[in-house]
Amino acid sequence: MPLCSSCGGNTFIPRVTGDKFQTSFQPEQVASVRRNIELDLEDYEAEICRLLKEKECLERYAAQLQSLDSPFHKIPNEILRQILDDSCDMNSFRAFDLKSRHPTPDAQAVRSKPAMVVSSVCSRWRQNALSTPVIWSRISLYWEFQEDDNWDGQEGDSWENEDTGIFALLSHFLDRSQRNPMTLNLDLVANALTDESALHPLLKQFFGRIVHWQCLSFYCEDYGIGVLLDRAGIPSVSFPVLRKLRMLGSAFNRDLNRDLIPFINTAPNLQMLNLPGRFVISRRNIENHNRIDIQDIFDRFPNLFSLGLTESLLYGDVVAPTPIAYSSKLEILTVGHHDEWEDSYDSPNPVFPILRLPSLKVLHLVYDKPGSGPTDNHGVYFEDNLLDDSDDSDAEETRWSSWGPFRAFVLQSSFQLTTFSIQRLSISDVNLVEILVLLPTLQDFTVDDYGISPIRSPISSEFVDSLHAHRTSPLLLHGARIIPRLRSLRLLNLATLVFKDLSVVEMIQSRWSPAQLHTVGTSAFEVDCLRVFTMTFLYRSEVEASGVYRSLEPIEQNGMMVVIQMSGKTLWL
């Protein structure tokens, strides 16, 4: 359809108008009129298509204007950067992608790098993402070589090309992190050294920035971190901003006592140290003194307030006298326990007989399967026969063998503990109550029974009765009250199929004192108001006890957080 040469407007003029619709035609004129009608219909159809396209364009433009008018666009850039910081976690790299002939990351690989995701939303987000170096400084590298089936080994397609693939991508992240303190997870299953025994170029990018390491989790299948630092050729090793360090041993590298030496006198600001591998606690069990023990850690890291260790102690082991390790600053302690020996150790490796920690506030005890590797594997360790109460053949195998030393540790340290958790440890309800009697300042208590059969679980009806604020219990002597300052109680992953639910309800009601929500009881027989209660059953049906727990509805409406789960379903009170 022709347009006006002056204004560009539509020059469409109908051939058949409305005033001719009632006009009579001669037979010889009918064919001409019908032809004009057909041409007009074609023109009208073309005009309708043009108008519809213009309408769609206007609608899209209106939608764009509406999004630009969104209140989110009025958020200042400073707040947007904080939002990006809060929403971006670790940027994960998997090094077996190095040999791919197609180095461009796929959709899944991009999703594992949140900094890339948020920087691809729009130009404003990209500008703010590039101006927020902290989101680029959180990097996790899992390094395991895996051949690409389509890789033909031609020059330029190799993963060793530093101009493509993960090399270039990591360089972009490190450049954009600028001088921001780094959070780094290095999980090195593949060989970290080249054929010439030099540090691999991929790792050199990280080791060249050790002065920016703030949080480090390190695992290497073949070498300690000291070897890699030496092969990196760094003239002066220093970790001035290192705050958190997590060292893991492996099947070939178990000597964590030696691996910590590079950090001695080089990490003055270290605050959190986690040694889930085999760290020999006592100097008595260290063959030579070119290593450090637990007291060296306390002395050389004066700002340390959080420590994670793993103990090895079989049931019935006799611990020889050993020098005491003392710290007046440590506030958080996590102890992993396992009851299997490893080939390179032929003596117990206890924790509690050695430590004296008067300032301890938070304590976590967890069953730690030996050889679980670098990934915090908290999977099912005792899933088989969870419900078979009659089979007690492995009772000693899963029994927590450090109860006696732990009780002595609590008595001799005289700390005022506020948070205590027990995860996957078999301990009797009698022993648990005996420990809780020694912790009158406890406010937050958690027991996770996952993997513990009901016959060896400490969470019994008698234990719940012992928590009652007024009722006596056969587990308590002289009418004592345990943990009177308790404010949060979590009993998780119980495998039992039968439980006295009424005892749970009555215990919660006895500890609900709204008048003491903002006060602390002064009398030895007064209890604080319980604020949070969570109880989860793995296999019970919600139909069995839902009516009993509905009596807690008034308490929940008045402020207490009550969560009851059965077989993964939360009961609505």
Automatic annotation (TrEMBL):
List the source organism: Rhodocollybia butyracea
Instruction: Name the InterPro entries on file.
Output: LRR_dom_sf (IPR032675)
* SUPFAM superfamilies per record: RNI-like
Q: Organism's domain of life? A: Eukaryota
**Gene3D superfamilies per the UniProt record, alphabetical:** Ribonuclease Inhibitor
Its recorded name reads F-box domain-containing protein
